[in-house]
Amino acid sequence: MRVHTYLFFEGRCAEAMLFYKEALGARLEKLLLNRDNPRPPPRGMLPPDTEDKVLHASFRIGDTLVLASDGLCRNPLSFLGFSLALNVADAAEAERVHAALSEGGMVQMPLGKTFWSPCFGMVADKFGVTWMISADN
Q: What is the total count of domains within the chain?
């Protein structure tokens, strides 16, 4: 049994995939658009002009598989009640990733030493996804 994170970007999924590729070195594994669906959803379920929106995507950050979609493209973008915890090799990588993810986003906790990590910080990226970045000891 496995559990995967599935993020809904409400129309900004392709943009998010590019951002995570640049910021984190994410590798896109699969990208299906709404127009690729052999069984289109019932009429009115999706807003007009969403055939080029992402029905399903999968990408890897390191060894971790993350799933994503544009969802129904109707709701405001909102990621509440969870954070993605990103462990990196050292403080230098933590600083690079923290800076990259905070571009257009908001630093929630600057990087600093904690009792569990030589370098830990939190940032909400420009899509509102919260990341907890921790350098290994």
A: 2
